Each structure stands twice: as structure tokens, then as C-alpha cells.
Amino acid sequence: MAVWIQAQQLQGDALHQMQSLYGQHFPIEVRHYLSQWIEGQLWDAIDLENPQEEFKAKRLLDSLIQELQKKAEHQVGEDGFLLKIKLGHYASQLKSTYDRCPLELVRCIKHILYTEQRLVREANNSSSPLGGMIDSMSQKYQQINQAFEELRILTQDTENDLRKLQHNQEYFIIQYQESLRIQAQLSSLATLPPADRQLREPSLLSKRATVEAWLTREANTLQKYRLGLAEKHQKTLALLRKQQTVILDDELIQWKRRQQLAGNGGPPEGGLDILQSWCEKLAETIWQNRQQIRRAEHLRQQLPIPGPIEELLNDLNSTITDIISALVTSTFIIEKQPPQVLKTQTKFAATVRLLVGGKLNVHMNPPQVKATIISEQQAKALLKNENTRNDSSGEILNNNCVMEYHQTTGTLSAHFRNMSLKRIKRSDRRGAESVTEEKFTILFESQFSVGGNELVFQVKTLSLPVVVIVHGSQDNNATATVLWDNAFAEPGRVPFIVPDKVLWPQLCDALNMKYRAEVQSNRGLSEENLVFLAQKAFSSSSCNPEDYRSMTMTWSQFNRESLPGRNFTFWQWFDGVMELTKKHLKPHWNDGAILGFVNKQQAQDMLMSKPNGTFLLRFSDSEIGGITIAWVAENPNKTGERMVWNLMPYTTKDFSIRSLADRISDLNHLLFLYPDRPKDEVFSKYYTPPLSKAVDGYVKPQIKQVVPE
């Protein structure tokens, strides 16, 4: 539920707190009338500490003003007139307030949204009668941003401590030089006559004792400062690790999972802007702390004081290097995956991106990325860090690409636009495995340095599994392998292990997702459709969905073993239905005109209770990618008896000659689409218009479908 809807239901002190967020700097009316727009913007993607982000903030300010002006223009009536003037005034006011400092607008709105979310969450947690819970995504974003704020404060604190330490150490060194000067003066007294020596020596000795006592005390203080600073850095690094784990192991892994499901037709994985902004903040904070630790080490070398600090600083340096290495290697990702069914000798594309590239100035010396195709075994060896140098399972043309920095978006990426798989080297297959079950992956690798060759990184990332085909006829079996892998792969698996069997409801989710995406329809598979598929998959006659809830389907049942009495698998039949619907039946499926998933006996039972001429459309059981018309009519051999007739199934070949709607129009004995809709009411908008007059003296012939009496 939108935050603003819930915020308006706050009561008592929480309501007063919410109202106090607004004023001339940001009127509450703007929040009210643009609530949906405001909550839909990526405010968190803007780093307030980075002046270069100002152009993004300016874009948001301009958009906000445009939205306000649009809203004002649409106001009508007496009340609308006043509101129109008011909103127009607010648009001018916000422009004059924030035009020169758009980042302040972002800061203001972020503060408003976070506070509202907190107030709503607290009200929810105290079981007040608020409808619905605050969006968990907003909560997570808030936690991440709060942790960044804590890290910023800690880093600023250690920076202040470091400056203080440096100042104290410089003063210590001056005093130490003074003690050396006193010592030199004492030594030079030996050359003086005894009377002079006795005169000057006591004050120098007293001076030396005072300075040395001060130096001893101050050395202990400096050591305490150093240890205190190291402990603070330990705390910062622990929080950094935790924050990095949340961003890389939770958020980025979830993005990759969404990307994998998008390969099966799931919703788009979403942009990387927020993730990149978080990763850049991490990189900046890590780098600041790394520089601080190195400065602390420099101060220690400048003035060595015996104690545990040397070991502590070595540990801190090693930890921070590990943290930045993990960040850099994990944020080298594939933004646009190569096709997962890859045909040899066919052009394909992919995009890789380094989320921290801009922040770490990697683009100053643009790295080159190389793409190689490797087998499942080679991928396993690579992840175990076994030596697989120069191992590949084929040859990709145009497989090198330089990473480019895009100033406006702040992204560093390599776009492979014209790759082509020239040849593939297959491994020995196991048992019943076919070539369309063999998985490969594209390995992208690069090397670059950070901080003027201070740190050199070798980065690698693997694409989602790829099945290589050499002919279009292998496409449907290859797609089955990819579908199963995308749907049932577990995070962090050994490449590319998937379960051999899955629960039927899990498979239903995957099939439904794929079907909707392929047919590009909001009408997915209904529970009745899924029961029909279960009957087909398990050779069962039960119509109760509950009977299939705990049943499992193996990969062999899915796409190795043929269905009973057929020469094709369950997947091949289902894929045929999808292809036919996608190419020729999409509008009729969306209209609900095709029942489709009905067997012959069910069709007969349904039609026998209806008037003659009632028909339905169902997918053929005996043919891949076929649809048939079943209708009820008189039995010509027995007067007074009725029977259900079935037309020979139509396939893609038939529909490329004459469409389904025209074929239904041709058959005059088809009157009502099941249950009782006149056929013209359903199909007439798809009929081909009658031919116009003769052209140049020629009459164009017309094809019509006829069913023999």
C-alpha cells in the first residue's frame, strides 16, 4: 500500500510529527497531489555527498515542477480554479528555492519519506488500525541507508581522530628534537671550564628531565590514541563487511535470481541504478578507510613506539583489502545475458558492467573484457580455483571488447554486439543425456588496476547456462533444459546442478510463467488447465487439484520419456501448444474463445448437453501444435440421436493458408461457441473482409474450407 495513504491514517502525536515535516520548504499539498509520482522516483539512487550527482537531482526537480504544472492544468470548476492557482504558485516557489541547490530537494524528500515510513511502521507494530503493512522493500532500503549514515559518521570520526593524532605526533617530534638539542647542549658542557659547567648544568638537567617525563607520558598517550583509532577502524570494518554482505549476498543475488527468472518469462529484473549507487557508496567508504589506515601506518613508521599496533594495522590493512577485493570481483556482472539457447554461426549480444568502475576511476585506463565459452566441467574447475588457463569449449568471434564509461549515467560497461559461436567442442555425454541437455556458459574476464596500479584485480563472471544447438529443430528440447535450470537452480550451486525432480506445483508456476510470456497474455493457465496438464503428465483421471499437490515430476518425465502411446514428450506437446498460440491464436486465447486444455472425452461430455451447432476449440492430444474443433450435431445414421464430431487438427501450416476465424466462418453448421455465444459475436472482428472488385480485369480466387457432409 502507498506510504501516503497510510500516513494520512496516522493519529495523535504521530500525525503531528508527520505534519511538522511540511512547510514552505515543501508544502503538504504537493505531497498529497503528487504522492504516487513522488513514491515512484529513485531518490535513493542519488548520492547527496557527490556534487556530480547534481544533474540527476536537477532532472528530478524539473520533472516534479512539470508534474505540478500538469496537475494544475487539469483542475476544473470553482474549487479547481483556486487549486490551479495554488499548485502553479507552489511550482514557481519550489523552482526558486531549489534551482541552484537541487540536491537539497532530494535531501528534503528523502527525509520526509524515511520519517513517514518510520511513523507508519511504528503505528503498524503497535497494532493500530492501519490498513496493510509498509512495503518491506522501503524498510530494507531504509535500513541500508541508515547503515550508510552510520558508516559516514564513523568514518568522519576516525578522520578527526587521525588528524588529532597527526597533530599530537608532530608536536611530540618537535619536543623530541628539543630533548636532543638539550642533550647536545649537555654534551657540549664537557668542553667548558668547571665553573661555567656547574653554573649551566643544573638548569639543563632539570629541563631534560621535564622534557623526558613529558615525552614518556606523551608516548603512552600517542600509543593509546593509536590503539583507540585501530579499534574504531575495526568497528567500521565490521559494519562495512555487514553492509557489503547485505548488498552483495542479498540484494545483488536477488537481482541475479530475478534476471534468471526473467529468462523464463518472469517480470523484468529491474534496473541496476540503486544497486550501483549502494556499491559506489561502499567503494567510497572502503577507500576512505583504506587511506586512513595507510596514513596511520605512515605515522607509525615515522615514529615507531613498541607495542601491538604494528600487528593491528597489518590486520586492518589485510581486512580492508579483502573487503575491496570482494566488492570489485562481485560487482563485475552481466547486465544483459547472452541468449540461453545459442545457435552456432548466429550473431548474438551481451553486456557486462562493473558497478564500482566509475567510482574507482577504472575508466581512466579502460579495461578490456574477453568472452570464452566453457563447459560445465570447466566452470566447476574454475570456481574451485583449479588451473584452467586457456581452456575453452569452442571459438567465439568478436569476443574482445573495451569497457566504456558513460558520463551521463556513470556506468562502466562493455557491449558485445556482434559475437558469433563459430564452433563448439562437446564433452562425452552421460547415459541418456542428449546434446540439448549439455550446458555451457560464457566466461567474461578482465583485469584492471585501482589507485594508480596500487591494487590489481582479475575479475571473472559466468553467464547463465547456455545450450548450444546447430539446427532450429533442436530449439524446443534446448528450451526445456533452460526452463528447468532457470526455474529450479538454487543460489550458490555447483555449476550447473539442478534437482532431478520437483513438486508439481513448482513446475506449474514455471509453465504458467513461460506460457504467459510466450503468448504475451495476461490470461495465464487456470487451475482447470493445470489439472488437465497434470492428467496428461501423470496419466491420471483425477479432476481434484489437491491430488497433485504433493506429486513430483522428474526431468525424464518432463522431456526424456514419451507420453504413453505417443512419440513425443510432455514438454514437446506443451511447447507445441505455446508456439501455435503465439503465432496464430493469441487474440482468440486472450478473448477466452479457446478452452484448449480439454481432452476428447471431456469435450464430448460438455457438448452433449448443448444445442446442435455448439462447438469448442481444444488442443489436439495426438499431434504437436494442433488445435481441433469439436461440435455436436445429429447422427446421420440414427435418426433422433446426436453425436460429437471432431475435425482433423489444424497446425501452423493450415493457419498460414487461412486463419482460424475465417475457417470457423466457412463452416455454417458451427453456430454457438461453448457454452452459448453466437459465433459471429466472438469471431466476426477477425474475419477477412470480402474481396473488392476485379483488378485489371482479373478476379482473385478465394480459398474456402468445406467439410464433407
Q: Give a count of the beta strands, DSSP E runs of length 2 or more.
A: 18
Let me know the CATH homologous superfamily of the largest domain: STAT transcription factor, all-alpha domain
Low-confidence stretches: 127-134
Radius of gyration: 37 Å
Coiled coil: 134-168
Keywords: Activator, Coiled coil, Cytoplasm, DNA-binding, Nucleus, Phosphoprotein, SH2 domain, Transcription, Transcription regulation
GO molecular function, one term: DNA-binding transcription factor activity
Subcellular location: Cytoplasm; Nucleus
Could you walk me through the main structural features you see in this protein, from its secondary elements to its overall organization?
The protein has helices at 3-7, 12-19, 28-33, 35-40, 54-73, 77-98, 102-125, 136-188, 194-262, 273-302, 309-330, 376-383, 475-488, 504-519, 527-538, 555-559, 570-590, 600-607, 652-655, 660-666, 679-683, and strands spanning 332-336, 341-343, 347-354, 368-375, 394-397, 400-402, 404-406, 411-424, 440-450, 455-462, 467-469, 501-503, 552-554, 614-619, 627-634, 642-646, 672-673, 677-678. The chain has four domains: 3-126, Orthogonal Bundle (Transcription Factor, Stat-4), CATH 1.10.532; 131-328, Glutathione S-transferase Yfyf (Class Pi), Chain A, domain 2; 337-425 and 434-498, STAT transcription factor, DNA-binding domain (Immunoglobulin-like), CATH 2.60.40; 505-686, SHC Adaptor Protein. With 709 residues, it is an alpha+beta fold. Residues 127-134 have low confidence and may be disordered. A hairpin with a 7-residue loop joins strand 14 and strand 15 (627-634). The strands form five sheets. Strands 1, 3, 5, 7 and 8 form a five-stranded antiparallel β-sheet that branches. The protein has a five-stranded mixed β-sheet with strand order 16-15-14-17-18. It has a four-stranded antiparallel β-sheet with strand order 6-4-9-10. It has 21 helices and 18 strands.
